[in-house]
């Protein structure tokens, strides 16, 4: 499953990605030069845009401008004077270059996923190995079998655009460094030093930053590098590899499709290398910020209209709760900034999350329709809810999830009021990225996106407060708010609209009308026939409108959605289309169709990470599901375990070990000749366990007695720590392929790109 690339690598964004949560590096190069582009998660220029245009702007002033149809004034404040300015922005750390003897040629690059180690091999047999220590904030580089000539440290060319003074460079024997002044008196130090051995050379690299490392950034960096050199490569790598062994031991997946499995493993690797407790969570590009002369795409910021939510949707089933908690703790720590945003911009109580924000939680602007929408925080709240559902961590629920979601809910409730029908609506509404930032992007409140996000938050609050008990009136209050939102706006054909006054009539990359199906399961295949028919109609309508406006992440989202509703062949087609057309040679998801072969009309290539993690979520949905069909309801419970619920015909054999299901349960299973032949479920809390019977009429042999068949489920009542296993007979042969089975190695693009947003 390792990543192997033939040299040369001439672009930073096609490099071998390495990281330890805080620090990140990209290994690339050609000829006799290796490059290591360096980043650190907390390197930010937090200065407001010149004149702080958002400082005096308010939600209700924006509503006045919308009513006047003066969208140009909003764009001038929020985009041109706000987001289009160089800062605030994520900033890179710089670059280390290694020059080898003339005539030396780098031949190949590799990433060993098991130990998170990058390698470059040379034509003459030499090699360079690099890892970013999982236990120390340093990177180590070992060079063997080739002649090393020079080391260079380069400041990022883009720094000049921010008006920073020139860096101060220094050297002392084998040590080289620079100290780069940044904004508001902060400084970055990049420090590297080398120790020559009999048959190899060892380099250590550190990046320090004020205020996290204090004011003496040079001294701190020097001490870290010298300690790493003294420890040596072998000893440091042993501790590093032990950490990664523990990471990979949390769960495992085995699939017959090597392309899908390789990308799944790479996506999980991103959590380990770019999302660690105590470090910032992944923004758009994680810890791999562009340093090749330009400021990072979209400022390298935190987008909450789907990016962060989808980036952190691939960890729950894999059981990577420490890595996922990194984002939730980060958002919880920024409650003071979110309260200030609610008070100053929305003039409301509680907390509001900027749709586009800096590391400190400050609003950055951008397309106002989503960057300044209060609703995106409700979607973020869904991740707090899911984390509790999967971990069943009552302390987290009581101290973090419920209080955080409650404050977001309080702000949203304060902003809404009844319309002429008595339905609660917001003063403004939009559907993310529909009509981009035009005047027509403002739709009649509430958009179907707003309704889905609001309803899901209020139902989650009802459920969480009901579970904890205490205030008997609180669950009922949240339930009333969920009901008062009214139904989703639909056409006469039963197709969900963008909003009451507008149908979705174009290809759209953001499935805002389908939010209730996935990820929220407000509409499910367990519902009545009318609900199932609505799901079918709406998915068919999105298919009809085509893929013209889709990004790579759209394919991952649709793959997960189709798996959620039990459509494995379309799920696999979308997943394979994503892998074919929207993945760079190093595994990063790119936003446009790299093949230019008809999977999208968009060809731009900046990478963002949510597509990678959405692909992981899609695989999880194919292997294991455990959602509740009635979030918020009094009898909600924990969802039934659905083993291999959306497996395509071509995946004849598969297995997984210790995937997580909601309710704190761990599941392992095996599939042979297209049928489940074994499963094991361990429960962490006493109570009822339901296992959905999708075994095709074969009778499981259970490891324990006392189970009952109730409706479509096998039901057991278990104590904490107890285990249920089942074995089922293996079919004698693989069954014939069903009609519509996806059998192609390379997917064919749709025959028609579909309907353009802007004809």
General description of the model:
This protein is α+β, with helices and mostly antiparallel strands. Among the domains are: 3-44 and 92-253, Distorted Sandwich (Beta-galactosidase, Chain A, domain 5), CATH 2.70.98; 642-672 and 675-727, Immunoglobulin-like (Sandwich). It is 30% helix and 21% strand. The strands form 8 sheets. A 9-stranded antiparallel β-sheet has the order 1-8-9-10-11-16-15-14-13. The protein has a 6-stranded antiparallel β-sheet with strand order 17-24-25-26-31-28, with no helix packed on it. It has a 5-stranded antiparallel β-sheet with strand order 2-3-4-7-12. Strand 2 (16-19) and strand 3 (23-30) form a beta hairpin.
Question: What secondary-structure arrangement, pairings included, does this model have?
Answer:
Blueprint: E1 3-6, E2 16-19, E3 23-30, E4 33-40, E5 44-45, H1 59-67, H2 71-83, E6 89-90, E7 94-100, E8 106-112, E9 117-122, E10 127-132, E11 139-144, E12 148-154, E13 168-172, E14 175-181, E15 187-196, E16 200-209, H3 217-231, H4 233-248, E17 252-254, H5 258-274, E18 302-303, H6 307-311, H7 321-333, H8 335-344, E19 356-357, H9 368-371, H10 376-391, H11 394-415, E20 417-418, E21 424-425, H12 448-468, H13 474-484, H14 529-545, H15 552-564, H16 568-581, H17 610-623, E22 624-625, E23 642-643, E24 654-661, E25 665-672, E26 675-683, E27 687-692, E28 701-702, E29 708-710, E30 713-718, E31 723-727
Antiparallel strand pairs: 1-8, 2-3, 3-4, 4-7, 5-6, 7-12, 8-9, 9-10, 10-11, 11-16, 13-14, 14-15, 15-16, 17-24, 18-19, 20-21, 22-23, 24-25, 25-26, 26-31, 27-30, 28-31, 29-30
Helix pairs in contact: 5-17, 7-10, 10-11, 10-12, 11-12, 12-13, 15-16, 15-17
């Amino acid at each position: 499953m390792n990543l192997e690339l033939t040299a040369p690598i001439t672009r930073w964004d096609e490099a071998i990605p390495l990281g330890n949560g805080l620090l990140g590096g990209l290994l690339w190069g050609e000829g006799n030069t290796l490059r290591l582009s360096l980043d650190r998660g907390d390197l930010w220029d937090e200065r407001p845009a010149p004149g702080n245009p958002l400082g005096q702007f308010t939600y209700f002033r924006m509503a006045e401008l919308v009513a006047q149809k003066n969208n140009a004034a909003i764009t001038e404040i929020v985009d041109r004077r706000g987001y289009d300015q160089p800062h605030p922005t994520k900033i890179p750390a710089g670059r280390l270059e290694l020059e080898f003897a003339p005539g030396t040629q780098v031949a190949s690059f590799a990433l060993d996923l098991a130990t998170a180690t990058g390698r470059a091999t040379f034509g003459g047999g030499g090699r360079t190995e690099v890892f970013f220590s999982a236990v120390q904030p340093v990177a180590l580089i070992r060079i063997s079998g080739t002649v090393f000539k020079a080391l260079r440290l380069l400041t990022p060319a883009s720094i000049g655009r921010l008006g920073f003074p020139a860096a101060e460079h220094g050297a002392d024997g084998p040590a080289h460094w620079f100290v780069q002044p940044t904004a508001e008196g902060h400084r970055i130090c990049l420090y590297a030093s080398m120790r020559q051995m009999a048959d190899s050379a060892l380099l250590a690299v550190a990046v320090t930053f004020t205020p996290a490392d204090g004011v003496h950034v040079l001294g701190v960096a020097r001490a870290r590098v010298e300690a790493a050199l003294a420890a040596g490569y072998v000893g440091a790598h042993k501790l590093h590899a032990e950490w990664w062994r523990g990471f990979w031991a949390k769960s495992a997946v085995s699939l017959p499709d090597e392309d899908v499995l390789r990308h799944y493993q790479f996506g999980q690797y991103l959590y380990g290398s770019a999302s660690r407790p105590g470090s910032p969570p992944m923004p758009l590009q994680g810890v791999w910020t562009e340093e090749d002369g330009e400021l990072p795409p979209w400022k390298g910021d935190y987008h909450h209209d789907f990016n962060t939510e989808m980036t952190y949707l691939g960890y729950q089933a894999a059981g990577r709760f420490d890595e996922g908690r990194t984002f939730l703790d980060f958002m919880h720590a920024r409650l003071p900034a979110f309260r200030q945003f609610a008070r100053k911009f929305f003039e409301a109580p509680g907390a509001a999350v900027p749709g586009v924000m800096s590391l400190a939680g400050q609003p950055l602007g951008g397309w106002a329709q989503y960057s300044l929408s209060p609703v995106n925080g409700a979607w973020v709240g869904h991740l707090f809810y899911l984390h509790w559902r999967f971990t069943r961590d009552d302390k987290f629920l009581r101290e973090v999830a419920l209080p955080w979601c409650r404050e977001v809910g309080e702000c949203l409730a304060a902003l809404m009021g009844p319309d002429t029908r008595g339905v609660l609506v917001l003063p403004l509404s939009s559907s993310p990225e529909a009509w981009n930032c035009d005047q027509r992007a403002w739709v009649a409140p509430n958009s179907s996106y707003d309704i889905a996000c609001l309803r899901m938050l209020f139902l989650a609050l009802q459920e969480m407060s009901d579970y904890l008990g205490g205030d008997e009136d609180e669950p009922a209050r949240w339930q009333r708010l969920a009901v008062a939102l009214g139904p989703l706006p639909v056409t006469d054909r039963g197709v969900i609209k963008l909003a009451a006054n507008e149908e979705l009539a174009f290809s759209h990359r953001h499935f805002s009308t389908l939010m209730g199906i996935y990820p929220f399961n407000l509409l499910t295949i367990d519902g009545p026939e009318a609900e199932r028919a609505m799901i079918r109609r709406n998915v068919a309508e999105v298919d009809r409108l085509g893929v013209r406006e889709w990004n790579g992440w759209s394919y991952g989202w649709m793959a997960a959605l189709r798996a959620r509703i039990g459509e494995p062949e379309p799920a696999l087609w979308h997943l394979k289309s994503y892998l074919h057309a929207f993945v760079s040679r190093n595994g990063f998801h790119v936003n446009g169709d790299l093949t230019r072969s008809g999977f999208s009309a968009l060809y731009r290539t900046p990478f963002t990470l949510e597509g990678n993690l959405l692909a992981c979520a899609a695989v999880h949905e194919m292997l294991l599901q455990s959602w509740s069909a009635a979030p918020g309801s009094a009898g909600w419970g924990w969802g039934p375990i659905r083993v291999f619920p959306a497996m395509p015909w071509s995946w004849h054999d598969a297995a997984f070990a210790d995937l997580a299901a909601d309710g704190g349960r761990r599941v392992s299973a095996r599939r042979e000749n297209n049928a489940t032949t074994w499963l094991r479920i361990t429960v962490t809390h006493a109570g009822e366990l339901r296992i959905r019977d999708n075994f095709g009429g074969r009778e499981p042999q259970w490891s324990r007695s006392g189970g009952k068949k109730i409706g479509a489920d096998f039901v057991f009542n278990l104590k904490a720590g107890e285990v249920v296993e089942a074995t089922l007979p293996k079919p004698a042969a693989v069954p014939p392929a069903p009609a519509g089975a996806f059998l192609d190695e390379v997917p064919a693009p749709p025959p028609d790109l579909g309907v353009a947003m802007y004809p």
